[in-house]
Every structure is written in structure tokens, then in C-alpha cells.
Amino acid sequence: MATVTNWIDHLSAKEVQGAIYPGVGSEGILVILAFIIWIGWHVISAKQESEKHEKLARKRHGPNDWKSNVTDG
User: What is the domain partition of the chain in residue ranges?
Assistant: First the structure.
């Protein structure tokens, strides 16, 4: 493992060119990937919630059904 005594000389060397961590320049791709995952998560959760609401709507519970302890089973 190489020892660096002067970081300014090390980072300005032609071999390094300022890259001090792996994957330099891929941040844009990672942001786009995170955005796609975020949108996908919203689409999937909205679909699941609408299916749940449609299932409850098909049961046609009335406003007073809670008084007689109507179960969802």
C-alpha cells in the first residue's frame, strides 16, 4: 500500500487526476436510478392502495355498520 505524504502533489498527478474515490462521475446515473426507483415505489403503492379501497367498496359497508361490529372476514 502506497503512503501519501503530500495530498496536493498526489491529487494533481496525471495518474490520479482528482479521482479520490471509485465511481467518480457516476453520481448522475445513481440519481437517475434513485428517481426511477422512487417513482416506481409510488406507482406500486398507489396500485396496492386502490386495490384495497376497491375491495372495501365492494363490501358496501354502511355508515352505521360499526355499531353492530361488522367484521371484514
Answer: 26-58
- CA distances to 14, 21, 40, 45, 46 from 35, in Å: 35, 23, 8, 15, 17
In angstroms, the CA 61 to CA 70 distance is: 9
64 to 37, 54, 60, 61, 69: CA distances (angstroms): 41, 20, 12, 8, 9
How confident is the model at residue 32, as a pLDDT?
96
Contacts of 12 (CB under 8 A, 6+ apart): 18
Is this structure's pTM higher than 0.90? no
